[in-house]
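Q: Start with the shorter request: fold the first protein.
A: Done. Sequence, then structure:
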Amino acid sequence: MLNVILKYFPHNKVLSALPFGNGHINDTYKLILEGVSDIFILQRINTKVFPNPKGIVDTHLRLQSRILSQRDTITIAEIIPNTDGEYLTFDDEGYAWRMTSYIEDSYSVDVIEHEWEAYEAGNAYGWFANICSTLKVNEFEEAIRDFHRLSFRLRQLKEAISGNLSKRAGSVKDLIDFYQEREAKLSLIETLTNEGKIPLRVVHNDTKINNLLFRDKKAVAVIDLDTVGPGILYYDYGDALRTSACTAKEDEKNLDLVRFNIEAFKAFSNGYLPQVKSILSNEEREWFYLAPVLLTYIMGIRFLTDYLNGDKYYKISYPGHNLDRSRVQMTLIRSMEGFETDMKSIIDILL
C-alpha cells in the first residue's frame, strides 16, 4: 500500500492509513499525511467483483463532472489523480487502487433511529436520482452485469440449491421455500422493464443507508458509487428502504427485533418521491409499492446463494453470517407484506 501512496504523495510521510468503514467488497483506508491538511480515502478495488476498474473510475468522473459543478448542499467525493494524472493506480501485484477526497465532519448510520434520518436519506437519494435523470443511460456500463436482475439472481439460487456445494441446502428448506413462493409476483417488475414500460435510467444501484454521509442532522453526501449505471428507480428506492426502514442490522441474530418501520417508510418517501415525481412514467408510479419487497427479496436470495455456495462472495465474520443475513431479509419481507395497503396509500398521496 505504501508504494501506492507514494504515487500520489511522493514527498509526504504517512501518519496513518487505517481501515475505514464496513463495506463488504473493497478494502478501504483513511489516509492522514504529514504536511497535508486534507484527509483522503484510499481504496483497493476488488476486481473479482468489479472486473473493469477503469469503467467504475470513468463513471465516477462522469458523475463528478455533472454533480460537483452544481455546488449543491449534497455532493459526492472527488476522485483524485496520481502524480501521472491517472485516476487508477496499480500496485506491484497488479491490484487496482483509487483515491478520493474525505467528507469532513461526517458520519454514517447503519440503522435508522429517527424519522429525520429517514427523511434526509430519501431527500439525498431523491436528489441523486433527479440530478442523474439528465444523463444518457447508454453512456454508462453495468459495473456488475445483471446486478439487480431478478431472473439472474433466481438462476444463481437454483444452481446453488442443485449444486449444494457446501452441503447446507437440507438445513435451510424453510428459507428456500419462502423465496420460491414469491418468485412469480416479484418477476412482474422485470417483465415490465423488458417491455420498456418501466424505463432504464442512471441509478445508484446500492442505496443502503450507510452509503450516505450525514453532518449534524443533514445528509451531505452520496458515497460508494461503484455500482452506478443502468437500472430502474425501484432499485434505489427499494434498497434504501430495505435498510432505512428496517429496525435492525442486516445481520441481526434476534429476528424478533426485525420489522418494517412504516413511519420511517413514510418519512423516506416524503423526502424521495417529490424529487422524482416529475420524471416518472405512469407504469413506474403504479408499481412503486413493490420496490422495497423486490430489493429485500433480491438481497435475501443473494445472501442465501452465497451461503449455499460456501460464502465465496460476501465478507463474513463467522460461518453462518450469510444465513443470518438472509433470515433478516425474509423476516423483513414478511413485515413489509403486512403494510402493503399502507405503502400504496402513502405513495399514491405523494405522487
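Q: Next, the second protein, separately.
A: Sequence, then structure:
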Amino acid sequence: MGEPDLPFWKAKSLDQMSRAEWESLCDGCGRCCLVKLEDEDTLEVHYTMASCRYLDVKTCRCSDYANRTTNIPDCRELTPETLGEMTWLPPSCAYRKVAEGRDLSWWHPLVSGSTETVHEAGISVRGKIVSEDLVAEEDLWGAVVRWPVAEGE
C-alpha cells in the first residue's frame, strides 16, 4: 500500500504552485495588512493596531484585493520572488512557514477545512484592530502592539 498523497504545500515548492494554490495559502489572518513602523535607528519593524484602510476588519480580507497595489502604493504583492524581502511577515504566516520548510498550523483553513479556525484560534486580527483612518498619523507609535510576532497567539 502506497503512502497517501501529500498536500500541495508539502509536495511543491512555492514557485511550483498554481495561482489558486498560492492564493489558498493565505490564512486570512490580516496581520500583513497592519500598519507597520520602522525604527530609523535599529531598522526594527513594529506592528500597530491600525490596519490598512482596505482591510475589512470583520473578515480580515482586503476589500479591493485586485487593485490593492494601485490603491496603496506601499502595498507589496507577495510572490515567490518577493517573499524573501518581506522579513516582517509574522512567524504564523503560511507563506513564510512553507518557505522555511515548516508545516501549516491546525487552524489554517487548508488543514482545518474552515475559514473560521484562524479567528477562533486568536491568530487573526479580528476584534483587535481599527482602520488606519481612525488613528492619527502622529499617534501611530502609541498604537504599537507586540502580539503579531508570536506564533501561538
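Q: Describe the second briefly.
A: The chain has a mean pLDDT of 90. Residues 8-149 form one domain.
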